[in-house]
Queue: 2 jobs
Job 1
Amino acid sequence: MSSLKFALAVTALALLLSACGGESTEQLPNTSQNSGTVTYNGPAPSTDDVATFKRTVWDNLVTQDKCGACHGANGQAPTFVNEQDVNLAYAQANSIVNLSDPSQSAMVTKVAGGHNCWLQSTSACVDILTTYISNWAGDSEGSAKTVELSAPTIKDPGATLAFPADSADFSATVYPILTTYCSDCHAGSGPAPYPFASPDEATAYSESKSRMNLGTPSASRFVEKLRAELHGCWDDDCTMSADMMEMAISDFAGLQDSQPVDPTMVASKALNLTADGLLANSGGRFEDNVIALYEFKFGEGQTAFDTSGVSPALDLTLSGNTDWVGGWGIDLGPAGENEQGFMVPAGKAQGSTTASRKLHTLLTASGEYSIEAWVAPGNITQEDARIVTYSGSSTTRNVTLGQSLQRYEVLHRSTTSDQNTPFATQDADMLLQATLQHVVVNYTPTTGRQIFVNGVPTDDVDPNDGGLLTEWDDSFALVLGNETDGNSPWQGAIRMVAIHNRALTPEQVQANFEVGVGQKFYLLFGVSHLIDVPESFIVFEVSQFDSYAYRFTSPFFISLDDSVEPSSIPLRGIRLGINGKEATVGQAWANLDVVLDSGSYEPGTGQPLSSLGTIIALENGPENDEFFLTFDQLGSNNFARSEPSLPPQPEPADLPPSSEIGLKTFDEINESMSRMTGVPTTNQAVFNTYTTVKQQLPTVETIQGFLSSHQMAVTQMAIQYCDALVANSQLRDQMFPGFDFSAPASTAFDHGGKSLVTGPLLSRFVGSNLASQPGDSEIETELSELMDRLTSCGAGCEPDRTETVVKASCAAVLGSATTLVQ
Amino acid sequence: MSKGINVRLLTITEEKDMTGRNRIRSLIIKACSTAVFVALVSGQAGFAQAGPREQAKRIHDRIAGVPPSSAVLDAMQSDIASGRALDAAFTAMDDSAFYDVTLKNFAAPWTNEAMSKFVPLNDYIATVIGLVRDGEDFRKVLYDDVLYIGDPSLNLPNYSTSNNNHYESLENSGVSLKDNLERVNQSTYAGLPPSATAGVITSRASARAFFSAGTNRAMFRFTLINHMCNDLEQVADVTLPPDRIRQDVSRSPGGDSRVFLNNCVGCHSGMDPMAQAFAYYDYEYDANSDPDGELGRLVYNAMGETDPETGSRVQAKYHINAATFEQGYVTPDDRWDNYWRQGANRRLGWDPSLPGSGSGAKSLGMEFAHSAAFAECQVKKVFENVCLRPPSNSADRSQVSSMVASFESQGHDLKQVFAESAVYCMGE
């Protein structure tokens, strides 16, 4: 196994950082509130570095509730919190810290291994210790560190056991132990979350998968909880309980077959994210002035730890409909019934007012702030929803970041701002989207409020002049995802929140955005067995994207042997494999076609293969899922992919029989009436009427869709056309030759007058000898009766009654189904 | 039923202070409602036994939307009686209403997102009408350098790239489109290089509807709907590589990546690599003073023109929301690839003689137009337009198949499809 210094992206980041290096940053005030328990009366720090050590590490850890109880002057070695002589403590501490890589300090790794974390969450202690040591080391925050690549254990894909789809084997092995010993609390109806001992087997199996490790049963969470954390043991014997659980999981694993990969495939070696992933987070975040930080690493329980290292820790209590998000984060859901049918209020995470007071103290002192968050709004329809708020009620606050539709809103109390008047991004910009976003709210007395989304300032200008925060109320509480009164719930996921007591510069905001969120790993897929390059790997940056997917990005090829380079090796079609098979969805490199060659290859950094990223579905969780790669071609190894032939298309189902006939639609009616009457569609009166009623006419041919409103519109059109027809002496004479329009109504229709009207109407409007139209005699009878009724006024009729009767007769036929039906 | 309602309306009218005009109207309404009631009943009853004359009437009604003159009806009847029903159908297509009414309303819904027929005549509709009138290979509708404008002798406002006045005046003048449309080169009028023209895709109406704002995916989707008779759900295929899905597509909508993996990816994996063909197009308009883009115009970054935001010919809209998923695809050019030549969408019947990839809208338009799905879609649309129903049973479906074959073998002349559909549905 060999290793080398790997400086991926470090150069670029370093350049970026050096550009920001000129920014002046103030050191945090000493927020340690430990003086009540330890008063230092020993010799003064002999050097500046000792003084820094005292301020950053010693002051924070010397108390009895942390390391002071054991590692004090008379305690066990190393006595790095010697309360009598800080210079001696400094000498001891130097032996257990790594100032160039604080996270690798012995002090940190010891605690990470389970040694006396003073909090519920080991990872929280680890983060806090790392922060303290980083602060001691100086400006290590905001700088990128080097990631060292090392070869993983080489194993073939497919050897990993996968969880079976059905729960039968689980029910026969592990489930009885869970129901016997864990169901008082974890059955779903009990006090604890995670119903892995639910009476419903399927629920229990689904909840249990992430807590069992089939490859290494002893590493299962179920076993570790009993053995290392002494949680929920039975018969007062944790060792026996843990052994029993491990045995059951071993039995369960024994029932499963490994799933070998198709031997014809060209496959890389296999890796597991948790076991084989190299931590890839290279730092680079600006957190010099962070005073509260939530990374949600713990992943279970009801507490989100403040890992800023600034005392007092402002831990948040999760309540209501909350859940942890895989890959760090919390998910806040709406109020509703849970699986057991109980009403659960909307989720929120709230700190105590006492602990929240540090925000008041530190922010009113600086007079400025940055609230930084990685959020994934659940939708873009929620309004007045609080994402991060430091407030007393829905109408009293110090500062609130909220969502209204696609706006980020900031409400804030200052000497110049009304606490209930939102300052927001613009609706039209649609900046808030229902996807993972980095949002920063800056406030300084000079620029007022500023909002940044995904590292970019929104350019919205605070309408208020800069003011002071002197009116802030110190009795408020910090809440995520809701208001203190629970009445302004926000739905979505929060992956990180940081509160800084200095405004971040735009460069720092951009840098923090670029770093991203969540734990990232490098996975080195071995390919030495496929090509003639020793210690060669295809490396991906991998992270758990959310609870349901992994993200793979930026693959590159590298050999850990600096003395070799690839030469003209074709690489075509990379696919990601998971648990013995290729992932169905998300194969972003299936079309990759590159040549590994010394021209593109740089010893130490390798050859980038693609700038793309993708996500693939999570199956059994990062502890269990086994990844590998397949290639269409790598070197001389080929895998010929063939597509199965298309299955025959099923015969579509028959539709219900539909009417043979249909309606004419608007333009057809207009054009038909124009043709029949001879009145052009451009006749002004006709055109006006048509424009008015156009959308009231039938728009589809379906005869079942005919409405009375359609008939009213058709009637108006018919009247208008007939009016135009009769009003035009030339047209009417052509249409009704021989009919005397000047005769009074009482006589005009006598002696064949009627037939001079009905005859042309029948031949022009209805057509002749068409069995599909009503019979002539039927229509004649109807029209005759109509004329009789309309002329019954006799001698008393108005002078224009004759024209009116012709118009009416015309419209009766023109507006009828003889025109309308096709 | 309509009679009852109309009588009630009449009563309401009579209760008002009746002017002379009102009285006339009420009388006429009464007359009309009576006639409609009678005719509807008798019309339906009388259609069971359709002879050549009734068949001729129906063919004319369905094709032209207006009743035939008695001379035309006689001629068509005679053709049908002599076993030349197709000739009768072509006779009906001589009626100008086939162009002014039927084809106009046939194409109008394709020219706007709401798929409304109530839109003024525009260059898209006119081009469809013109291609049919001239018996052109209808596939050219998606890729040719073609545009139909009103006859210059009509003294209409000139064709403009930034308004629709030319076509609205043409429509309102009432002249027949059959006789007054003139074929020209789109490139000459629209300010596009000939290689950037793609039939109706690059028409002004289409650009206004589908290139304005957004990401140009609308052009892809609506071309798919209107000319391939498939919406995206019907062609979703999650198994295709997502390597061309742009950065603006969230991989975790609402914080849940399952939505992307099960839904979004299915459409975007195929759509994004093809919609890339439109990367150099945009529709420019003043969103403040002209929110509907009535005065906007199609723009195209020709060779040598660079978008300041992308630094290439690619329009800025292709790079928007880049932070949504930074490792997504960054569009460098207008190269398109048809991923649907793999997987389930092979069933769309792509032309094996075409390469399945290219640059720009023209070659993508041809990829679409030369597919079996395009031909089948045109036939189905015509069938439904003429028969007033979708193909509903095995007889209808086999008729569609035979019409597709005929469409393909007879130079893709859409008139042939209208004729065959009308004969098939003329009644027995």
Job 2
Amino acid sequence: MIGVTAASVHLPDTDLGPVLTELAGPGGWPESLAGTACPPERAATLLGRRGLLMKEPATRLALCATHRALGLAPGPVPPPDRDPGTAVVAAVNLGNVETVADLARTVEREGYRAASPLTAPNASSNVVATTVARWFGFGGANLQVCSGAMAGADALVLAVLLLRAGRARRVALVGAEPADPVAADLRREGGAVNPRAGAACVVLTASGDGVPLELSDGEDREASIVVGPAGVDLVARWGDYYGAQDVVSLALAYHLTAAGVAASVTVRTGGRTAVLGGANAGS
Amino acid sequence: MTVRVVASSLRTCFGTGDQTFEALLRGENGVGPLRHGSADRLGVERGYHILDDGPSRAGRWLAGCAADAFARSRADPVRERVIAIVGTGLGELAAVEDWALGGAVPDPEHLHYGGVLRAVLPGVTDVITLTGACSAGGHALALAQDLLELGEADVVLACAVDGMTRSMLAMIGRVAAEPTSRVRPFDADRTGVLLGEGAAAVALTRTERPGPALASVLATGLSCDARHETAPDVAGIAEAMRDALSRAARVASEVDVVVAHGTGTALNDPVESAALREVLLEPGGSPLVTAVKGAVGHLSGTAALVNVDVAIRCLRDGVVPAVTGLETVLPEGDGIRFVLGGPVEAAPRLVQTEAFGFGGANAVSLLEAA
């Protein structure tokens, strides 16, 4: 059985309050969703200073979301022991587009000697997934999905696949997108009305612990809360997080079920349905 | 459980998979003047290019390979669930760079390959694009096998594609002491890496599906070094090798041939040699080791599936090409049986292919004859 044992929503410019009050009633917020989300430029307040030099906003947001999902106190993480049983699946499309655009302009204008070698890791898009792995010592399979708006849903499918195939006993599913000028222009070109920067993290295991998660292609089971199409419209309420959107929805669903606000929550993602909680909730 | 390769389609600077393998056997290299951006700005003068022009080059190569592998797999999407997973290192970031330099703004939904592949794979259920640096294709292959073994799909196309970006070329130029003229994997006098262009698609099915097959994939091992931003790490790479052997229920001494990653860089080749020694040689293995980047360049996320295509041909034809560009074996490679000078006739039963990506994402596959 696949279970979700922890999650975080890290959306710096978004007030979660109105949606949570609607769903959980005044004062019924899951405690785990309390607190403010630092923006990427102030990530050091949560993560500590070390290692953040030249880290792009999406990477910083992904680190913040993972840090919070793991329940770590603010401050630097001690050098982790490498854990080959934990995999990372990141859903990120536009993490390095600003770096790549800047590099192209710099090189065209001044030549390659003007490019800092410190940006080298950011020339490769998978930098978000590998940085999360290094920061927290996750030595299992390392995937970054970039299927556009479907990235979060695809990443969830692959996270479950890694667990079912015995490639990992725990997966950190992380969604992150930036809203730097390059990313925001691209997203508006793609039709986004309200592109935002944010991240979320959902920790999945195959151990039977946590809130049960089931995936299906078809109709969802009866659930008191539905997130996504014909349910709580998080894009309209919280903003457009593009490839991270479905991970944000899953993280919210986890918090609501884990806190007992609802016995089960259905998340409608791009083409698939995920149900958290349900018959086995709380077991 | 093993899965079967029912089709493999490749596009490199030499052309098709047949043409690429023939060039490897002849010891040719496909390097030429850099055709992406300007050499003086990038600090890179050479590249392994596909000599075509026009828009959406990478998408066209990928579509061509995927359509070919799909047709030859005889997949029937009415009865069979077909999924495509595309691994790429640089993806369509070149379109973002073109925009930054005055071109048109791309639609973000054109920065992945869902649309490209749905257009040529009628009835495909899902198309998933992964960005995974230089081992992306190996990750696609691993997930393809998982999907088949768990009954989530009946036919999976593990695909990969890569062109070049100015940003990656500039980083290669920035760290090179002087511009590299060709890639020389595992050579004592290697001078660094050059990029190549290409695409690949491997069609996989479960063993019980009737019809001919090219080879079997026993397993792909995955790991992440979780150690350094760009430098490879022996422990992480060795773990991916051991994971592949363990998942395939094979031992080191059974590996007959290794199609290595071999980038010709200061960092990769000694580390890869150390991992080969630790995992395969020390327990008693003595495989022949070849590598293709001296011939076709480093195809980024496509590199893993180039190695897989070459492995399939080694199994089928009983011949292992030499490492193009390797003349004097690096000191750390002492004792490793690199194929030197010309191809070697062999009858390999088990072939290991390797790909290691930026950030330490590693994929190692084991293949045998069908």
